[in-house]
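Hello support,

Our group uses your service weekly, and this is the first time we've seen a run hang past the timeout. The protein is Probable peptidoglycan glycosyltransferase FtsW. I'm not sure whether the cause is the sequence or the server load. Input pasted verbatim:
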Amino acid sequence: MGEDPGTDDRTAGRPRRSPGAARTAEASAPPDDVRGPEPGAAPREAEPAPSVPLRGMDAASGLAALRGLLDRPLASYYLLLSCAGLLLLIGLTMVFSATSVKDYAEDGNASASVTKQAIFAVIGIVVFWACQRLPASTYRSLGRPLLFTSIALLLVLNLLLAYARLTDQDSARIGPIEARLLWLFIGGIQVQPSELAKFALVLWGAHVIARKGAALGWWRELATPLFPVMGLLFVLVGYNDVGTMLCLLALVVGLLWAAGVRMRVFGALTVVGLLGVGLLIAVASLGAGSGEKGADNYRLARLTLFLNAPPPDKCGDPCYQVYQGRLAIEHGGWFGVGLGKGSLKWDWLPEAHNDFIFAIIAEELGVIGCVVILSLFAVLAYTGLRIARRVDDPFRRLAAAAVTTWLVSQAVINIGGVVGLLPITGLPLPFISDGGSALVVTLAGIGMLASFARAEPDAARALHARPPARWVRLLWAPLPPLPGRRRRPATPPAGRGSVPRSRERRHDDQAAPRGVRQDRSRGGTASERRR
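Update from on-call engineer: The timeout came from a worker crash unrelated to the input. Re-ran successfully.
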């Protein structure tokens, strides 16, 4: 009577086990691979071993870490300082390597050229420090004076050079001012006006386009005053230096591209630019640039040699510089012959310290050194366009895009001419080639970019959230303005009637009778007053 009707008779005499004992027995039982397969069962396939996570950083985690670093508020600022500083250091090193042998042979001082370049580098760093402290309003106000100054210097340079051509002289002098090809010597100070014209065109052009705003869709707005001033600068600069004129043209293209101008404008600029380049190539036969009247047109020779290059043994003098530069690249190989051990700089390669310094880098540092230089310029291009995309002020966006286009296009033209992908134009390599005016103006542009990088919305909020020490702000850079923070308009003054408002009488039923002073004490309890 005590049995359950559903219980099997075979299990009636077995002792019962607790659930814990059953689990213990299952745990102590050997696994299937130890016990072997049951009789009559099909053999099982071996299960794949579980994947063990790799110790370290794989590609996905590395990209995630890089993305996290780039998402930091001041990433643009530190990227800009890093790539510009490395390029400047490499430039000083390569100038010493390219000029030490020749300087020692001529003057007995191997560090003469690098000392001069280091002085200009110190001046450029001071200019960089000053430019990164300036707000955008100061840059907008500096555009017009710098533009007028550069145009005046270019006019003086071209007039003196024209006078020197008429009198069959290499240079012309008026008082303390002397002109030689691309440079003005003012009281012993060497100035290249075309370098100042680049920076002036950036500031003035960005200010004009930002002020016009949406009206740029009309040709009339672009025609006045942007195109006439650009044409004047192109003529004054391109008469002596076609390479710098091409750099100015690339700068204007970057400026208009950042402004969102329609494609038909770029097509018209391309046609006008090609016609202007053809005209400037033609006037080299009349003595423009370094040409001589009646001599072979050296600009046309460079273009024809690039389009249809003869063999080096049949080319002669026009191909000498290109041939020696390619020999330097071939001699360097993958890893180079060693820093300072190159042989083409021993008066074999013309302008080894300036226009063709990239060939010296390829010979002494090899392909690895060239890749490092190209990578640093790529980082500079990415950082400049990143700053232009992140800032919220139209002037900052346009100026950042223009400066980035200027520096990167100049590097591309120089390196392309050395390796044979573009015609030779005589442009220096930014940060690296020997030249004082170019280095100072380049560092001024980098300082302006640094000022804009600190003015990014996220960077400005981060700097205001945790401001640096006061002495850091005084010695390095002040805090940038917070984004979207505008001065509130003043409250309009109240309208004055014949009777002041304080003396107006109330015309409602609660007006106190004349001569009776109201009780100003607050009556009732605190809870009643709160209600």
